[in-house]
């Protein structure tokens, strides 16, 4: 894919790789971490941890319900448990197990869902997690993290183990642009402002942060200055940042590699509508599954490119009071 | 504690039977008072649960419900919560007066067990099929931590329709979780009918569990001596998790439940005359009253 290349963003490792490496590093310093995977460790990259610490790694096979239940039991027994699989299998297959085994009892389990969005490419819709943010944010007591790139995924992986409670972390399959080339500070629950602007705010997460930066660059050529927020903590959402964006820029566009139903856009809209209504537009999957194709082809066909964000911004700016 | 010491510290069979009698009465009384609940499902499990907690089987300390070395009991068939509550109250995990608040607004004794609200509850069950996985998690944690506690999981026959039970069974065998002992409360009825009519292919049970790599025992789930002997024997098994298939009666054979050939009054408390009849039969069964 070519998102961000025109504005000089370098591509870094896939976020699943960054997660896997950060997890292994954490495992060295923290003997209490135990990892469970469902026959996809060489896809989710929990294999790095598993190879380093085989006595703290369990492969329960292709059985996501049991995967979650085992993680729940490990956590109840005092371990810092992490369970990983593809985002769609983790959240869809095991929703009830997460609900009753993790969210309801508020156990200290970290869930990591890989192969998020449509940029996984040719494997197609059955492997794509496009509703995982919606499902994860629907759980009371959960923190939901959607880091944008390699460095912020490392940081998010570390940060999530500072949380004593349920966390969902979303990772992806392909290499993605680095939006934090100079290091990153992550504070759970606080959006990062990557760019300021007075005409509109683009609130994005994951791969769409780079798309937002490219869109902001293009918009600037046309005299529209966009603030860009990396809302990597989708839950609890940074209400103050959203409120300030509404008040200070008067229009908001959200962008996510996810269905619009129940995703980042919906979460932002909830805050905007309640606190300071302004025109909004939403970039994401419009109530559709995708198909097989290259990541670039899919992102273009299904409207997740910088150009789509530009179009949304122009539409929403025109509606400003 | 050695097995001998545990056997000594456990109550005598006569005392255990007296406990079962008392807790069985409480199951009926608390669900009738609440106006809802699952007395028959609770009654089929009460002998096994009493044996676990009062028969010198489980290492536990009601004053230290989070003791890391404790044995764990998970009631996977969470709707038998009245049985669990009766057992935990008798063991001293909370004041017995709470039993009469079952299912009331504000009470920690919810319709299904809530591990956050009640000491002694190891898992928030009720959505069937999940407890064996959770128990396996505890069992694996013991291995990681080098602790020698045991994990007991009690689940239902209807509950074994759930695929997750079999996922957990396979994984437990893979990891040779010999500190995991499951008890299948084989009371022969699920919610819409007898198990051999709702899901005939659930049977044969013994063959299935053997094929899944478990050590299998089969007992009369209302015979205290058999229960104790089998639970003690299970601890000696190496390299395999153990399952005890306990033949039980949903409603413990009490006539108000026996009269229902569909599901033994699943999810229904006793009402009116049924209560006195059931209690009188219980008293007679245990030589009381």
TL;DR of this structure?
The complex is a heterodimer of chains A (321) and B (289). Chain A is α/β, with parallel strands linked by helices and 321 residues long.
Cα(first) to Cα(last) distance of chain A is 37 Å
What does the average pLDDT of chain A come to? 98
The H-and-E topology of chain A, N to C, reads as: EHEHHEHEHHEHEHEEEEHEEHEHEHH
Task: Please give the CATH class of chain B.
Answer: Alpha Beta
Counting structural domains of chain B, the number is 1
The parts of chain A where pLDDT drops under 50 for at least 5 residues are none
CATH architecture heading of the largest domain in chain A = 3-Layer(aba) Sandwich
- What's the rounded overall pLDDT mean of chain B? 96
- Multimeric state of these chains? heterodimer
Most strands sheet of chain A: 7 strands, mixed
What count of helical segments of chain B does DSSP give? Answer: 12
Q: Report, as a whole number of angstroms, the end-to-end distance of chain B.
A: 37 Å
| CATH fold category name of the largest domain in chain A | Rossmann fold
Please indicate the count of domains of chain A: 2
CATH superfamily of the largest domain in chain A: Thiamin diphosphate (ThDP)-binding fold, Pyr/PP domains
> Would you tell me which CATH topology of chain B applies?
Rossmann fold
What is the highest CATH level, the class of the largest domain in chain A?
Answer: Alpha Beta
User: Helix fraction of chain A?
Assistant: 40-55%
SSE topology sketch:
The complex is a heterodimer of chains A (321) and B (289).
Chain A: E1 11-12, H1 15-29, E2 33-37, H2 41-44, H3 47-52, E3 57-59, H4 64-76, E4 80-86, H5 87-93, H6 95-103, E5 109-114, H7 132-138, E6 143-145, H8 150-160, E7 167-170, E8 176-177, E9 192-195, E10 200-204, H9 208-221, E11 226-230, E12 233-235, H10 239-249, E13 252-259, H11 264-275, E14 280-285, H12 295-301, H13 306-318
Parallel strand pairs in A: 2-3, 2-4, 4-5, 5-7, 6-7, 10-11, 10-13, 13-14
Antiparallel strand pairs in A: 1-8, 6-12, 9-11
Helix pairs in contact in A: 1-8, 4-6, 9-13, 10-11
Chain B: H1 3-9, H2 13-34, H3 39-43, H4 46-54, E1 72-75, H5 81-91, H6 131-145, E2 151-156, H7 163-174, E3 180-186, H8 195-198, H9 205-211, E4 215-220, H10 224-234, E5 242-247, H11 255-258, H12 273-285
Helix pairs in contact in B: 2-4, 2-5, 2-12, 4-5, 4-10, 6-7
């Amino acid at each position: 894919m070519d998102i961000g290349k025109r504005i000089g963003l370098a591509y870094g490792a896939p976020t699943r790789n960054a997660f896997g490496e950060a997890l292994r590093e954490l495992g060295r310093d923290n003997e209490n971490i135990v990892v469970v995977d469902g026959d996809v460790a060489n896809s989710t990259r929990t294999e790095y941890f598993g190879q380093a610490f085989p006595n703290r790694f369990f492969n329960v096979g292709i059985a996501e319900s049991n995967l979650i239940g085992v993680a729940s039991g490990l956590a109840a027994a005092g371990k810092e448990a992490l369970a990983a699989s593809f985002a769609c299998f983790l959240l869809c297959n095991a929703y009830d197990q997460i609900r009753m085994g993790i969210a309801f009892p508020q156990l200290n389990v970290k869930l990591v869902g890989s192969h998020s969005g449509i940029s996984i490419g040719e494997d197609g819709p059955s492997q794509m997690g496009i509703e995982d943010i919606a499902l994860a944010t629907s759980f009371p007591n959960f923190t939901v993290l959607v880091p944008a790139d390699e460095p912020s995924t490392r940081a998010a992986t570390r940060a999530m183990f500072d949380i004593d409670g349920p966390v969902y972390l979303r990772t992806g399959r392909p290499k993605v642009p680095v939006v934090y080339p100079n290091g990153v500070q992550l504070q759970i629950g606080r959006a990062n402002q990557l760019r300021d602007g007075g005409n509109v705010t683009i609130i994005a997460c994951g791969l769409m942060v780079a798309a937002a930066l490219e869109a902001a660059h293009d918009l600037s050529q046309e005299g529209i200055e966009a603030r860009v927020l990396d809302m990597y903590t989708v839950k609890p959402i940074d209400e103050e940042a959203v409120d300030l964006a509404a008040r200070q820029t008067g229009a908001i566009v959200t962008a996510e590699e996810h269905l619009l139903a129940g995703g980042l856009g919906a979460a932002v809209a909830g805050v905007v509508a309640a606190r300071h209504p302004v025109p909004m537009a939403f970039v994401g999957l419009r109530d559709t599954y995708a198909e097989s194709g290259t990541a670039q082809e899919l992102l273009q066909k299904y409207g997740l490119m910088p150009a789509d964000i530009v179009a949304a911004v122009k539409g929403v700016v025109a509606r400003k009071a | 504690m050695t097995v001998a010491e545990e056997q000594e510290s456990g109550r005598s069979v006569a005392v255990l039977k007296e406990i079962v009698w008392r807790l069985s009465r409480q199951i009926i009384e608390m669900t009738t008072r609440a106006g809802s609940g699952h007395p028959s499902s609770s009654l089929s499990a009460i002998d096994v649960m009493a044996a676990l907690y009062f028969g010198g089987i489980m290492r536990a300390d009601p004053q230290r419900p989070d003791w890391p070395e404790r044995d764990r009991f998970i009631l996977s068939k969470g709707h038998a919560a009245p049985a669990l509550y009766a057992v935990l109250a008798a063991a001293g995990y909370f004041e017995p007066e709470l039993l009469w608040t079952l299912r009331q607004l504000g009470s920690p004794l919810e319709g299904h067990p809530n591990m956050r609200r009640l000491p002694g509850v190891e898992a928030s069950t009720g959505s069937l099929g999940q407890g064996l996985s959770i128990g396996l998690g505890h069992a694996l944690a013991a291995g990681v931590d080098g602790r020698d506690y045991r994990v007991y999981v009690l689940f239902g026959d209807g509950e074994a329709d759930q695929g997750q039970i079999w996922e957990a069974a396979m994984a437990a065998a893979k990891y040779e979780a010999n500190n995991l002992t499951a008890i299948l409360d084989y009371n022969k009825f699920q919610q819409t009918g007898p198990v051999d009519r709702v899901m005939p292919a659930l049977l044969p049970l013994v063959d299935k569990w053997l094929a899944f790599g478990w050590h299998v025992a089969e007992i009369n789930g209302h015979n205290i001596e058999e229960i104790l002997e089998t639970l003690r024997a299970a601890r000696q098994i190496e390299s395999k998790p153990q399952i005890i298939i306990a033949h039980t009666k949903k409603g413990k054979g009490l006539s108000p439940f026996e009269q229902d050939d569909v599901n033994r009054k699943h999810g229904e408390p006793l009402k009116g005359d049924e209560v006195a009849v059931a209690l009188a039969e219980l008293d007679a069964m245990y030589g009381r009253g």
